[in-house]
Structure formats: C-alpha cells, structure tokens
Specification:
- The protein is α+β, with helices and mostly antiparallel strands.
- Helices cover about 30% and strands about 15% of the residues.
- The chain has 9 helices and 6 strands; from the N terminus they run αβαβααβαβββαααα.
- The strands form 2 sheets. It has a 4-stranded antiparallel beta sheet with strand order 1-2-6-3, with helices on both faces.
- The longest helix has 16 residues.
- It is globular.
- It starts with a helix and ends in a 15-residue tail after the last helix.
Length: about 280
C-alpha cells in the first residue's frame, strides 16, 4: 500500500475502529468499471475512496453510547443516524481532507442508489460479493436470485455502511486487493444464496463461514423488529397503534439497465433481496 494511503487509512481507522467499524481503501475506477455510466461515481478513476463497514461490536461500542448522548434530539433511524454521526466525525476531525461521504441508503431523486454498496465492498477487498453468476449451471431456473457479501472474519454478521470519497487525491499505484473467496465450492455457494434468498429469517446464511463474532441476541431482536417499531423497542417512543406488517427491508426500486449481462450482475443494491431481517 502506498505510504500516503496507509497514513490516511490509519487516521480514519483511529477515529472509527474503536467504535466497531472497519475501513478499506479502493480506487473509484475499480468500482466504475463494473457498472454502466448511470451508476458511476463522478470522479477520475484513480480517486481514492474508503469503504466503511460495521462489525457486530458496533452495536455496543457505537449505537448504545450514541443513544444515551443523543436522546434529547429527534430520532428517526437510530442506526443510520449513529453511523452518520461517526462518519461526520471523521470529516470534522480532518477538514483538510475534504471528504465526501455517501451512506449506503442514500438515493438520487429518481430513487437510484448513490452507491451500490456490495459492489464497493467487493472491489475494496472487504467482502466477497457472491452472485448467481458465481454458480456453474445454477439450479434456479427463472427465479430471481439476489447476491450477498460474505466477510472473511464475520461471515454475514456485518453491514456495509457507506463510502468516503477523497476528491483531488489520486492513487494510480494503489494495488487492487481481491476479497477472500470464503465460499469456494459450488455446493457452498448454492447453500449461501438459497439461505439468503429463501430462508433469511433463520439467520443461518450468515454462518457461511465460521464467524469470529456474531450479533448478540439483543442485537438480533433489534434488527428483526420492523423499523417503525424500533424506537418503541428502545423505549424512546410509544408503541405504534398500527404495527408494520411489511418486511424490515424494502424492495429495491432500482431499474436494471440493459447494457450487458456483466454489468447487470453488479446492480444489486445493498438492501437486496426485499425480505431480510436486517443489517
């Protein structure tokens, strides 16, 4: 890794890692080359960016302290607001870096995602993005099969939170880092993708590799609770009179362009498939 990149990475890690986050550098061009122009990040290819993900420790190290300190302020989505607070802390601590943050949930006015988080995680070498194309002679026929990222240490027990772009800092010599192929067999990939798409409620797809750490039972309850009920669960709002009956994770409104099969395979947003128990 280039010394300048290593130094910047260390600065960001010193701010975020104590709170349960991980940081991975990548070039914008690596991301853009996998996608059609409509999804490109509007920066030169060698522009430096960092992917940020949360580990199971984030719940205790970041979210709980955030809730205690932020209670006087209005809360809408505690996790998103907590992550935003910590990412903003980096920009405030290092104003000379002129960091532009894109959270995983941000969309353009036409509802197109601003960042395809799983693609970014793959090119940054953080987590392998397993897709239908990774299964030879797949058995699913005409069924829609969404892809999923698996982390080498945490399996599926993590969440991609966004990217930090550094306009004006170009790193043409940054070596690409391939994500570890944690599920190398055809049978394992079929089990993973079927678990993610058809049996997500039992959480088992997240154990595609033996994780170093899983979500606590408390954390699983939180992420299994529909978003409209989470403030009540935390004791920060009265229970809703009309509990949500919809899945916690909304259907994607992304319309896939028809440029090529290779491009289409990378257009799955971080929130797919529509039915999932949480980050």
């Amino acid at each position: 890794m280039e010394p300048h990149v290593a130094e910047l990475k260390q600065k960001i890690e010193d701010t975020l890692c104590p709170f349960g986050f991980e940081v991975y550098p990548f070039q914008v061009g690596w991301y853009n080359e996998l996608l059609p122009p409509a999804f490109h990040l509007p920066f030169p290819g060698p522009t430096l960016a960092f992917l940020v993900l949360s580990t199971p420790a984030m719940f205790d190290k970041a979210l709980k302290p955030f809730l205690k300190s932020y209670q006087p302020q209005p809360l809408r989505d505690p996790v998103d607001q907590c992550v935003s607070y910590h990412l903003r802390s980096v920009t405030e601590k290092f104003p000379e870096l002129q960091i532009e943050v894109i959270a995983d949930y941000e969309v353009h006015p036409n509802r197109r995602p601003k960042i395809l988080a799983q693609t970014a995680a793959h090119v940054a070498g953080a987590a392998y993005y397993y897709q239908r194309q990774d299964v030879d002679a797949d058995p699913w026929g005409t069924k829609h099969i969404a892809g999923v990222c698996i982390h080498p240490r945490f399996g599926g027990w993590f969440a991609i939170r966004g990217v930090m772009l550094l306009p004006g800092i170009e790193v043409p010599n940054l070596p690409p880092r391939k994500p570890p192929d944690c599920v190398p067999t055809r049978a394992g990939r079929i089990t993973l993708l079927e678990g993610f798409n058809f049996h997500w409620r039992d959480w088992t797809y997240r154990d595609a590799v033996t994780p170093a750490e899983r979500y606590s039972e408390e954390q699983k309850i939180y992420f299994s609770t529909p978003p409209a009920q989470r403030l009540a669960l935390l004791g920060l709002a009265p229970p809703s009179e009309h509990p949500s009956t919809t899945s916690e994770r909304p259907s994607s409104t992304l319309t896939k362009p028809q440029n090529s099969s290779r491009a289409r395979s990378w257009l799955s947003p971080s929130v797919s498939p529509p039915l999932s128990p949480g980050p």
